[in-house]
Give the backbone structure.
Amino acid sequence: MRSWDYWENHHSTKEPIDVAHYEAIGTMESALSIHANEAFDELNNEDKILCEKLFKSLTEKGDDNRGIRRPSSLGEVGGILDCNVKKIVEISHIFQTNGRTFLNFSDNNKNKETILDISHESLMRIWDKLILWVEEETNSVEVYLKLCDSSLLYQKGEIGLMKPPDLQLAINWRDQNNPTKSWAVRNNPAFERAMVYLNSSEEEYLEEEKNKVRLQKKTLRRTRLFALVVGLAALFAMGMMIWSFTLKVEADKQRIAAKENEEQAKIEAQKAKEALQLAEEQKQIAEQKTMEAEKSAEIAEQERLKAEDAAREAERQAGIARSNLTRAIEQERLAIANAKKADENAKEALLQKENADKSADRADRLRMLSIAQSMAVKAQQPNKDTDQKGLLAYQAYQYVEEYEGEEHHGDVYAGLYSTLSQVNKKGYNHLQAHRGGIRDLILDSKNDQLITLGSDRDMKKWDKDMNVTSSSKFIFTDGSENTLITPTEILEVKGHLIASGENGKIVVIGPDGESRSLRKNANRIWDMVAYNDALFVTHANSTLEMWNYKTGEHIKTLELLTELKTIDYSPAKNMVVGGSAVGEIMSVDVGNEFRQNSIGYTGTGITKILFTSDGKYLVTGDMEGHIGVYDSKNGEKIIDLIGHTARVSDLELSPNDEFLATASFDGSVRLFSLEKLDLEPIVLRDLDDWVWSLAFSSDGEQLYCGSASGKIAKYPTRTETLAKDLCTILKRNMTQKEWERFVAKDIPYRKTCETIE
């Protein structure tokens, strides 16, 4: 067919179809590859990247080292490509038009459940691009699996963090492939652990490199300073030596001149003596020598003048001496200044030593926290020796507290909780509360009681010790008849209990025990929220009702722009906010004529939404297990809290907004620190069924969870509470051998529990 199409578009008049046309389209060997490349070239650069990832997700390398098909749903492919189903369908359509049938859909609906597959395996053996892609994908999977294995060994404490060149190879793989969680789960579900291990290795390596640079700079500065000081000292010594030598030479000259003058004086004295004798002997001749005497007087005058010149020279030498004294005083001042600078250098050296000591303390702290992490992980593993398991957990808790680790530490909590659960065979603080699932639970803040609502139509009240204080059937009163209904949600506000049931039924039980029914809309109730005297209810017919639940007065029914599955109210903003089945976040301004606005879009059906107490942040949970935290003012997402793998069933904030608790149909509850959302959460997994409902105690110290099996559990929100409970049941301390095995040989042994001998 390809040969025919080529002949029709390129043949001359009356030219028959021939071998040349067959060869022009690449023959049987290359025709399919060329045809696929033509389709690929019709895409823009961005879609080509998505196309490459698309075909990689639909193929894998078999045992015979050849590509094999890997059919996948559009939802799974969208998670791997990080794009929506519509974009995948657009790209796939290129490979299904103009005589191409490279891709097939399992049905025409083309939704997330639709299966996408390669039409024939021959494409994987002939298309040159796909052959290369399959090879690249295989190599990428091998790198990822190796990283998962290394992170597991690190978690067990058997190896350390990665070092070059393996670290650089792993970083290159991460940066080039930008792996998504959906892609990683297909090969190994330990994606988060592997990425944390890789990021931790990279951060430690970068920190080591920075320390090396800092040490080099510090050594260079010290060397330069030392060379400068030595140079200045050498120059000073040389100057003093030259000055001393000059003074010595001048002194030698003066000494020689003085000696010459002394000799001359002796000669003159002898001459005077001889002259006196000659005068006595030749007195008469003296007069004849008057002229000679006068001449001698002139000579004497000249000598006097010379003596005055010598005195002036002596004065000049004295001035030089004074100048030298001034210079010596200046040199002394410089010496004092140098001594002061040397003292400052000594102080700087002391400061550097203090910084080095701090770095050593930080390294020691990080090591002890790493040991604590390792012991906490080991404490979570099965171990028949309950005391050893508990000692590992409690020692890990002590080290985290002693070395200023994170108080909200998921592994330390899990280690302590695992030991307590093993000691309490039926589960730590677990209780079978209802015969059916617990649809909702709340805390009656007025009486400090927990209220549970079961699908067995029982409403029970519990005290702090988890003892039932009252139990009654849930009855819907409609004037002339009383009807048992299955409740779906319960609220408590100002002593009133408000519960919803099937077909739009709402029951209000006052503080006096009297009940009142509210019903104006027969459609199913999705959610409700109350504040002061107002009750807001959202129905399946895209309406929002407002009631005065105390008087039973119906205030308003509002037609919504979209059907809201979950709602919450913020007193700070006087606003109701809700989430829809298609992921839209809508607000209803109660104080401004109930004006509706769209403030965000998650892309996935929202199952739960709530405000923080100050109305600053919004938290949403969706059908796929994602938790999103948004700025309520502009709708911008602040962070994604990942971890749940199934629908989010409930969200709760502790009374002071310290903790955020999330529940899911994956059977787990996650407890986040709202101030440090980037920390790993505390994960609770032992309810063995869907978790439907959550509630905090009035002081925020306990978290209550209700499951689909009717079981209720009470979890402490702080690790300290578990640690106190655990220390009371331990019967011994670690042996020296256990200490060296689980802590370290070079760390001095100490008792984990001081109260135990």
